[in-house]
Amino acid sequence: MQQLLQEVIVLVKEAGDFIRKEAQAFDKSKIEYKGKNDLVSYVDKETEKFIVAGLSKILPGAGFIAEEGTSTKRSDSYNWVIDPLDGTTNFTHGLPVYAISVALLKRGELTLGVVYDVSRDECFHATKGGGAFLNHMPISVSPVKTIDKGLIATGFPYYNFEQMNQYLAILNDFMQSTHGLRRMGSAAIDLAYTACGRFEGFFEYNLNSYDVAAGALLVKEAGGIVTDFRGGDDFLFGREIVAGNIAQPEILQIIQNHWNK
Ligand code: IPD
Ligand code: CA
Ligand code: CA
Q1: Where does Mg(2+) bind (predicted)?
Q2: What is the H or E stretch that residue 169 is in?
Q3: How far apart are CA 253 and CA 261, in angstroms?
Q4: Both ends of the chain: CA-CA distance in Å?
Q5: pTM to 2 decimals?
């Protein structure tokens, strides 16, 4: 697994070089739309092709869950879960907060995760049972025990506004009970920053597996807790995630006080 991880890191950093180069000259006329406020560009697509091609060599036979659909091949044993550019809206607006997220599922279980924060050249990685690291240095979740001394990250709804009132009630609570709320615009970065203790927690709904797979493993391997909004395990495909340090149950409780009521 360690050998595999090193090869994935080299590949992801090469993909990051491409994104960094394209960011210097990106022109907003190149934005395409997959749906309302759902942006994509040639940078997302080409990065994904590069990563899928590289991973196909590193682990022949593995399948893919990849956001831009470069490969839809699935395997009974190993599947890569890839977001080639998490934070596309930031990228297209020249806001340097975006990441590459690559995870490996072994029979449905997260076993490896890499989140590469391209602009800051910060590479977060974890393997199941092997701990979590930032640029090869061990990381752990924040030691802060209660959210009144915590910084919490989230993602704002941007295309499905059906649960807006409940969501706003949750934000209202967090604004009054924490050091502050942040909306970075990249779920992978939100989770990586939770893993290394910059945030005490992160929650969002309507995310896909490729947004959270690598980051969720980072948080768990850094000693954190990751659940869905009911406190269960369905955070990878269930479109609800709450991740955090020891204060995660307190964060979850605030969400549950308002969600689906
Ligand atoms: C998005 C980012 C964002 C989150 C969105 C995601 P993308 O991913 O993770 O933070 O709020 O829901 O779709 O589209 O930039 O890969
Ligand atoms: Ca994403
Ligand atoms: Ca993406």
Answers
A1: 67, 83, 85-86, 211
A2: helix 164-177
A3: 13
A4: 44
A5: 0.96
